[in-house]
């Protein structure tokens, strides 16, 4: 029956890949509170176990202490981000008009001295009018879809709250939950099959936990190197805040490094185009070092994969499933490699040398 189910899934994936991938995305959206709860349990469980063993306090108290420190961390981050963000926005608001005037004066001076632009000016004006119409249309669309955005944000907040509540219940009663799940497996499948399923999920638990910790360490290393470069070499304003942005966005697969690079470049551009260029070069080099050296090395040690496995997994996962595929590709590849190694070890037949 299990083989038949897998065969049907493979047939659907080959027959209509777009529908199959869309169905997976919808399933992930539906299960997002549960997945968030499992993620929080993976991260908090070692801390809670340490507090229980060290201070002999009730588990529910340890859980609330852990969440309290997470809340304090987020408050610290907001306190760190907001002043720098407000200063940067004020700088942008005051500096952009002067830059616009300088560019306008430069263009007018150059065009007035070069009559060959006279025939091009009407086309430029037409393109500018078209661009302005597109901007107005986009703003109208954003304003008309404002309610949709509000509902989307509300849905995200609801999923986070539900995830936290579910994680508290899971962490409080994890022994009974695991016991009941094991009883269900052993009552449904044979002893051998049930043991294999439990072993499978145990391997997934260890691999995903190590992958999350590895991702945090990689982002932390990138954030520290970014701060050193911004503060001591390029010497830009708000280096701590911008390094923190790079640290956070580096944990986002695929698009994260681009988002993390865009914000420091734009903010530095508001007061120093030369420094903005140096920021762009520095981040480009850093992302190459991160993608080809830091991440494969650290993730390889934590997940137990060779850098070639990691690079291939990210390429295949991104090509097949996009952002979700990139994020899940490394732990999935680690699970596949674990079972591949077991299969080889079990079935290997090396002839004895005479």
Automatic annotation (TrEMBL):
Pfam families reported in the protein's UniProt record: AI-2E_transport
Recorded topology in the membrane: Multi-pass membrane protein
Keywords assigned: Cell membrane, Membrane, Transmembrane, Transmembrane helix, Transport
Membrane-spanning residues: 31-51, 63-82, 146-172, 208-234, 240-264, 276-295, 307-336
GO BP: transmembrane transport
InterPro entries, per database record: AI-2E-like
GO cellular component: plasma membrane
Protein name: Membrane protein
Family named by the database record: Belongs to the autoinducer-2 exporter (AI-2E) (TC 2.A.86) family.
Compartment(s): Cell membrane
């Amino acid at each position: 029956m299990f083989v038949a189910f897998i065969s049907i899934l493979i047939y659907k994936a080959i027959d209509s890949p777009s529908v199959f991938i869309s169905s997976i995305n919808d399933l992930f959206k539906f299960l997002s509170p549960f997945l968030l709860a499992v993620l929080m349990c993976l991260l908090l469980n070692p801390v809670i176990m340490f507090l229980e063993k060290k201070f002999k306090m009730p588990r529910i108290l340890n859980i609330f202490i852990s969440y309290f420190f997470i809340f304090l961390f987020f408050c610290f981050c907001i306190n760190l981000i907001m002043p720098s963000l407000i200063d940067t926005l004020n700088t942008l608001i005051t500096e952009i008009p002067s830059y616009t005037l300088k560019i306008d004066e430069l263009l007018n001076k150059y065009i007035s001295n070069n009559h060959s632009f006279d025939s091009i000016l009407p086309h430029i004006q037409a393109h500018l009018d078209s661009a302005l119409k597109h901007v107005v249309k986009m703003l109208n669309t954003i304003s008309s879809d404002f309610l949709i955005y509000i509902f989307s944000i509300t849905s995200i907040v609801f999923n986070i709250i539900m995830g936290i509540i579910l994680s508290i219940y899971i962490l409080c009663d994890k022994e009974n939950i695991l016991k009941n799940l094991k009883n269900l497996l052993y009552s449904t499948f044979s002893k051998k099959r049930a043991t294999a399923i439990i072993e499978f999920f145990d391997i997934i638990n260890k691999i995903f936990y190590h992958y999350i910790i590895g991702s945090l360490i990689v982002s932390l290393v990138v954030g520290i190197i970014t701060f050193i470069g911004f503060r001591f070499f390029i010497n830009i304003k708000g280096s701590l805040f911008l390094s923190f942005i790079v640290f956070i966005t580096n944990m986002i697969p695929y698009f994260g490094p681009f988002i993390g690079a865009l914000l420091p470049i734009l903010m530095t551009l508001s007061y120093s185009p030369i420094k903005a260029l140096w920021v762009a070069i520095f981040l480009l080099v850093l992302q190459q070092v991160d993608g080809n050296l830091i991440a494969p090395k650290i993730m390889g040690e934590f997940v137990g994969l060779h850098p070639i496995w990691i690079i291939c997994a990210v390429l295949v996962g991104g090509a097949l499933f996009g952002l979700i595929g990139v994020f899940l590709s490394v732990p999935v590849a680690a699970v596949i490699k674990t079972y591949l190694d077991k299969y080889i070890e079990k079935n290997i037949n090396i002839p004895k040398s005479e």
